[in-house]
């Protein structure tokens, strides 16, 4: 009899959880693994392609840059198309999971094929191989990533639980960012040991490519396919059957869907927040690299890069550890308050950087050999105060990843009430497009700015005016967009109360309790 009561209680608990919108740890953790696939798919081809084509195969950098840019343009074009197609798709497995499952498999296969470049071909032939296979890969990436992000929006109607879902996605995304840079170094270590070399510089191009291919197969097979398939098994589109019945036979035309998405005031503000946040982050993270090398390390690229690596690791660690803090804060208050905290930290970070990035703080050597040498290096890091930079600035990307994506889920509810359709795919695709365009714009602005202030990379020491302008740009480039974001938040119309009211309206319409 007690066993029957336990089963009844378990069923009741699951039913109550479903009605409340609460998800199990297993669901959130398993779906979140797709964030690793998204991160590897977004970064690995660009970073590895630059090193393979230019440094290993010796193809001129200008041609490499063009070939790397074309697939990104293709990706930006296909995202909204895939979003609309997924929104209108009908199957017994839902609108998203078939694409997530198939896209993950295709990503693994096409990623491995990119690096099977025929070594006997000319430079033009090698570039053609890379371009064609990259276009196939980014098509597979779009097939996976757009429906995946849409699925994360629609798993739960709960205001706070949506933030928790995006927290898991961002956690896995950050893990991906910590690993994608390792493809070339790990592959060269592997193949150097195989052939008995102490230094990977002694390897031939053919031997280096052998290691790249092995590492790419592992990255593609495990990081992309295996982890990417998990959301298809554990993620469920809430109310799919009800929505399918309500919109039976009704299509949401592409241009109409895009127009209605862009006309949504809350969504337009979210896209603007993403644009300003990304520009601030990219501008600051690139400008500090120049300062660390030329201003603080006297043009010593190796030393400056070591300091940059320390900063990068610090940002990654704070970016991961800060996720639970932001999720907790938004649960206690709201997502808007979470954004306000992040933008406040961005402004504080700008002030910290003005104080920390000064000559004299980075004079102690960094040597990672014996325990004593490593200890002195850690002391040098502590003395420099550079750790204050990631401690205050590491929250940058949580705003775009966790809060921005979580608020899009609320926007989808608001849009359904106003226009009668669920278009998570289109909203996610446009938000992703705005983010990618912001990265591209940021690099253009950095190049223009460096040219305007007279920066000359051939000189190990720049003029005092150049250094001053770079420091101003690093700090104002972060604080200025943060202040603009504060202004935009004042006009954001979809607060926590409104979002919860929208949920009640939709559940009443669908007959849910």
UniProtKB/TrEMBL annotation:
One record GO biological process: carbohydrate transport
Molecular function GO labels: symporter activity
PANTHER family given in the database record: MAJOR FACILITATOR SUPERFAMILY (MFS) PROFILE DOMAIN-CONTAINING PROTEIN, MAJOR FACILITATOR SUPERFAMILY DOMAIN-CONTAINING PROTEIN
Transmembrane portions of the chain: 55-77, 98-117, 129-151, 171-192, 212-235, 266-287, 307-329, 336-356, 394-412, 433-455, 467-494
InterPro entries: MFS_2, MFS_trans_sf
GO cellular component, one term: plasma membrane
Protein known as: Putative symporter YjmB
Family per record: Belongs to the sodium:galactoside symporter (TC 2.A.2) family.
Keywords assigned by UniProt, alphabetized: Membrane, Transmembrane, Transmembrane helix
Superkingdom as given in the UniProt entry: Bacteria
Any Pfam family: MFS_2
Gene3D superfamilies reported in the protein's UniProt record: MFS general substrate transporter like domains
Gene (UniProt): yjmB_7
């Amino acid at each position: 009899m007690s066993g029957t009561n336990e089963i009844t209680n378990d069923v009741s608990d699951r039913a109550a959880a479903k009605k409340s919108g609460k998800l199990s740890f297993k669901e959130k953790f398993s779906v979140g693994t797709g964030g690793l696939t998204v991160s590897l798919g977004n970064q690995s081809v660009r970073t590895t392609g630059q090193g393979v084509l230019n440094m290993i195969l010796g193809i001129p950098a200008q041609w490499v840059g063009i070939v790397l840019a074309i697939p990104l343009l293709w990706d930006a074009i296909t995202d909204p198309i895939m979003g609309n197609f997924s929104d209108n798709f009908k199957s017994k497995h839902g609108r998203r999971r078939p694409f997530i499952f198939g896209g993950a498999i295709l990503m693994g296969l096409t990623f491995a094929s990119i690096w099977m470049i025929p070594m006997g071909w000319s430079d033009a032939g090698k570039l053609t191989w890379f371009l064609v296979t990259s276009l196939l890969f980014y098509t597979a990436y779009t097939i996976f990533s757009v429906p995946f992000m849409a699925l994360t929006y629609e798993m739960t109607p709960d205001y706070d639980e949506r933030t928790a879902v995006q927290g898991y996605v961002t956690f896995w995304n950050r893990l991906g960012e910590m690993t994608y840079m390792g493809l070339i170094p790990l592959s060269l270590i592997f193949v150097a040991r195989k052939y008995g070399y102490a230094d990977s510089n002694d390897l031939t191009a053919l031997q280096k490519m052998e290691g790249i291919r092995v590492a790419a197969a592992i990255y593609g097979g495990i990081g992309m396919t295996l982890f990417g398939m998990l959301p298809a098994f554990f993620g469920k589109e809430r109310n799919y059957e009800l929505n399918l019945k309500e919109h039976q036979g009704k299509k949401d035309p592409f241009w109409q869907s895009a127009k209605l998405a862009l006309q949504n005031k809350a969504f337009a503000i979210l896209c603007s927040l993403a644009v300003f946040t990304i520009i601030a982050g990219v501008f600051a993270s690139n400008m500090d690299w120049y300062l660390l090398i030329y201003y603080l390390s006297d043009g010593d690229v190796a030393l400056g890069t070591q300091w940059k690596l320390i900063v990068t690791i610090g940002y990654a660690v704070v970016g991961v550890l800060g996720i639970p803090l932001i999720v907790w804060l938004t649960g206690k208050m709201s997502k808007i308050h979470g954004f306000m905290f992040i933008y406040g930290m961005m402004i504080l970070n700008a002030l910290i950087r003005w104080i920390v990035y000064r000559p004299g703080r980075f004079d102690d050597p960094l040597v990672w050999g014996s325990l004593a040498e490593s200890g002195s290096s850690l002391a040098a890091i502590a003395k420099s105060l550079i750790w204050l930079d990631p401690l205050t600035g590491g929250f940058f990307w949580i705003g775009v990843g966790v809060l921005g994506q979580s608020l899009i889920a609320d926007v989808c509810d608001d849009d359904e009430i106003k226009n009668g359709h669920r278009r998570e795919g289109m909203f996610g695709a446009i938000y992703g497009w705005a983010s990618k365009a912001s990265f591209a714009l940021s690099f253009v602005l950095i190049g223009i700015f460096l040219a305007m202030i007279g920066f000359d990379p051939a000189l190990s020491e720049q003029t005092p005016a150049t250094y001053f302008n770079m420091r101003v740009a690093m700090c104002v480039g972060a604080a200025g967009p943060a202040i603009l974001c504060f202004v935009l938040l004042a006009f954001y119309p979809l607060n926590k109360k409104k979002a919860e009211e929208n949920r009640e309206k939709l559940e009443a319409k669908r007959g849910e309790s």
